[in-house]
Amino acid sequence: MTDEELARIHRAAFSAQRPWTASEFQSLQQSPHVFLVCSDHAFALGRVIAGEAELLTLATEPVFQGQGQGRSVLEQYHATARTRGAETSFLDVAENNLAALHLYRTAGYDQTAKRPGYYRQPDGSTVAALLLARSLISGWSKSTPES
């Protein structure tokens, strides 16, 4: 997927926030820590540093939302992050992005913190960012003590 295609999908999927530009996607992907996973109509961009994966963005073309494309690229993101040595994954999401929250919660993410007023909306108001995290280690859960 080209940087222009990434920007087009991001712009369509994130109409309530400032979309990322093709040059921003290009710049991010120049880092050896950043990786991209794609399907025909969705993508996830992540980075792994020191055993932690950060989901930078995940976007699905609006007409294909609800058809499993986002879930598919999220699973690819998890698998790729693990192969790069990540043991945990984290992300932030606008608290009013209910579709994304559902996707992340059903994928095993739990809220770890909240940043009030983090995202600016088109009308000038702000909405909190929820910080979510999950383990990428098979068989590990929050109730399992670390050894």
How would you describe this structure in keywords?
single chain, 147 residues, alpha+beta, Aminopeptidase, 6-stranded mixed sheet, 6 strands, globular, disordered C terminus
Structure description:
The chain has one domain (3-135): Gcn5-related N-acetyltransferase (GNAT) (Aminopeptidase). Strand 3 (52-60), helix 3 and strand 4 form a beta-alpha-beta unit. It contains four helices and six strands. The termini are far apart. It is α+β, with helices and mostly antiparallel strands and 147 residues long. The chain has a six-stranded mixed beta sheet with strand order 1-2-3-4-6-5. The longest helix is centred in the middle third of the chain and has 15 residues, at 69-83. The chain is 29% helix and 34% strand. It has helices at 3-13, 22-28, 69-83, 98-106; strands spanning 34-38, 42-49, 52-60, 88-94, 110-120, 126-135. The model is unreliable at 140-147 (pLDDT under 50). It holds the Pfam family Acetyltransf_1. Keywords: Transferase. Residues 1-137 form the N-acetyltransferase domain. It comes from Thalassovita gelatinovora. This is Ribosomal-protein-alanine N-acetyltransferase.
